[in-house]
Amino acid sequence: MKKILDTGNAACALAVKAAKVDLVAAYPITPQTSVAEKLAAYIGSGELKAKYLPVESEHSVMSAVAAAATTGARVFTATSSQGLLYMHEILHYAAGGRLSVVMANVNRAVCAPWCLYVDHQDSVSQRDTGWIQLYAASNQEIYDSIFLAYKVAEEINIPVMVNYDGFLLSHSMMPFETVDQEIIDQFLPEFIPDWRLHPDWGGTFGNVTPSDEYVPFRNRLSEDIVKAGELLKKYAREYETLTGHWHGDLFDVYRPEEAEFFLLSMGSMAKEMELAVDILRKEGIPAAGLRLRVFRPFPGEELSRLLPQDAKLLVFDRNCAFGTGGGVLLSEAKAALFDRKDLIKITGQMMGLGGEDLPAAYLAQKAREMMEVLK
Fold first, then answer.
1. Which residues, 6+ apart, have CB-to-CB distance to 116 below 8 Å?
2. Each residue of 93-125: pLDDT tens digit?
3. Average pLDDT over residues 344-363
4. Residues 276-317: pLDDT tens digits?
5. Cross-sheet strand order for the sheet of 75-79
6. What is the pTM of this model?
């Protein structure tokens, strides 16, 4: 183990190097670019024995890593914002083809207007592509989540997206602890796929199918994504045993004791929310923080279990669910809790769009406003 002070992008690149990927394909986009630059440097120096493929667009990036994954390669890419949107078509191919691609998405607002700073619109817009989605809130969590993503992706053949906030995490210097290579090798051994394409024995991928074959295939993908939540927890426990690092719950819960108001959010905002909870607690308001770590599969049953009878759920969305008057997390939470028979109440607000600053005092004030709405 070694303590390092560096950026979130550096933590991501170090983890990918330790995962011993076979191929990296990338196209530069702020604030992801330094991930690709660091990996290219590792490959160029021989520290990472892999192929680096520079291409002309993000659509080609995802096409390249998806194609390489069909041959049994362990692959990686990273992107942000418009780059992720440009990949959208091939994201469906990667998930539908049951390819174990891992991608880091450095969250950034999408156009228009043009904005370089963080919100979650880029990644939540991909929620129905069939990818598992994780959200990290620290450089340590970024580093550890890369290994967890590969472990799960290669177990169930479903791609995984590791999301973290642009600039707030990607470019902020924070201490984190790396794991010795022999421990990583024990947790994440060489990838041996159940199937792969090879010119010596032929084969096909993504053929045209009739509905009687298409429907069960899609249903199986849907069912396996739901099962991924428990698999994530299983491998997170294994990783904790080997490293002492724990990021395994679907939610990170802060001060739930005798709480009435539960403040739900994800990403770096959710860590700041812990300070907002402390402010509210000092005022005698029984508040707790809920940091969502796994957005897909959405852990609705776990959310319901965490909320006591007659709880009030305050949802803080760093995105817009256009046409609903709220954000995506609010819509997901309402759907998940629809069958609750007690007097649970839910409200939410959109905030932090385009990098709007979210200090703890501001979040506490927004929480008080939502509490008034629920009276």
1. 30, 31, 108, 109, 166, 167, 355
2. 999 999 999 999 999 999 999 999 999 999 999
3. 97
4. 999 999 999 999 999 999 999 999 999 999 999 999 999 999
5. 51-54, 23-26, 75-79, 102-107, 160-165, 132-135, 294-296
6. 0.97
Q: Is-contact 160 149, C-beta < 8 A?
A: yes
For residue 230, the tally of other CB atoms under 10 A from its CB is 12
Question: Which sign does the torsion angle of CA 305, 306, 310, 316 carry?
Answer: negative
- What residues does 135 pair with on adjacent strands? 163
Judge whether 344 and 307 are in contact, CB under 8 Å. yes
> Strand pairing of 132-135 and 294-296?
antiparallel
What are the phi and psi torsion angles at 292 (to 5°)?
A: -75, 120
